[in-house]
């Protein structure tokens, strides 16, 4: 199988033939250590100011543990609501969707603008439903539309405004426009970590609130993140470094696409999640790598099949 880099249950195979040189350069420049120290200069001078307040994802597990008592309390308070619907787009819903699908916990994700699909979700078991409205900015129009559609559905079903408010949990950054709306509705508000960008927010309140309500043991996820963190500053046995170096080297050598196949990872929905992480993170200044999700290593993607003559 060739070289393997593994830590905390994650493994990267075959990265060295592509990324060995890039990796040596990164190690020589001390990048793994600087990354763990959250050095904001790593992203270049133009990004330094933003990087200073956006590197919380490197040790989210430290602050997320503080959420555990609040999550246990919330789950107990809402014990009669066993249908969990998550309204959130992209970075605000992909991670909890993957976590719940992988662990077999029921979570309905509302991340569509298709009226038929939204209507179908709205009519089911309202009296048992808790809607998690997740938006870092608090201004994503799709998510706010889902919130309003659900509120209308509760009121039309005869809930009082106070009863309807109890069925909403809002996850957002402090100071976002959703805070005031949530307070007006009487919804529970759980603040996310403002130092973690939306697409890296898997282990902040964005991932943990819906996952915990759906019955996932979220403390275990935080433990796994802490275990992986120990590998990030190393020169070897560092799967993140091996993968990053290989991707960077491939792009530098002229590759512009990466095929993603989740088969064999045991993580359901991983390819779709990684697609967003890579596309949104690397598509800057006219440079980037196009992620393409495939069903199997030798299959063309559904999109490619549809387009072929
Ligand atoms: O959490 P928010 O602010 O609603 O954003 C949802 C998604 O929309 C984007 O801002 C743009 O697609 C993503 O970065 C993010 O994952």
From TrEMBL:
Which domain of life does this protein belong to?
A: Bacteria
- What's its top-level EC category? isomerase
Q: Which GO terms describe its molecular function?
A: carbohydrate derivative binding; glucose-6-phosphate isomerase activity; monosaccharide binding
Keywords of the record, alphabetical order, are:
Gluconeogenesis, Glycolysis, Isomerase
Q: Which PROSITE patterns match?
A: P_GLUCOSE_ISOMERASE_3 (PS51463), SIS (PS51464)
- Every copy of the SIS domain together lies at 74-219
InterPro entries, alphabetized: G6P_Isomerase, SIS_dom, SIS_dom_sf
Gene Ontology CC: cytosol
Q: In which pathway does it act?
A: Carbohydrate degradation; glycolysis; D-glyceraldehyde 3-phosphate and glycerone phosphate from D-glucose: step 2/4
**Enzyme Commission code(s) on record:** 5.3.1.9
Q: Does the keyword Isomerase apply?
A: yes
Q: Which residues cross the membrane?
A: none
Q: Please give the SUPFAM superfamilies that the UniProt record associates with this protein.
A: SIS domain
Catalysed reaction equations from the record:
alpha-D-glucose 6-phosphate = beta-D-fructose 6-phosphate
Give GO BP annotations, semicolon-separated. gluconeogenesis; glucose 6-phosphate metabolic process; glycolytic process
PANTHER family linked: GLUCOSE-6-PHOSPHATE ISOMERASE (PTHR11469:SF1)
Name the family: Belongs to the GPI family.
Q: Could you identify this protein by its name? A: Glucose-6-phosphate isomerase
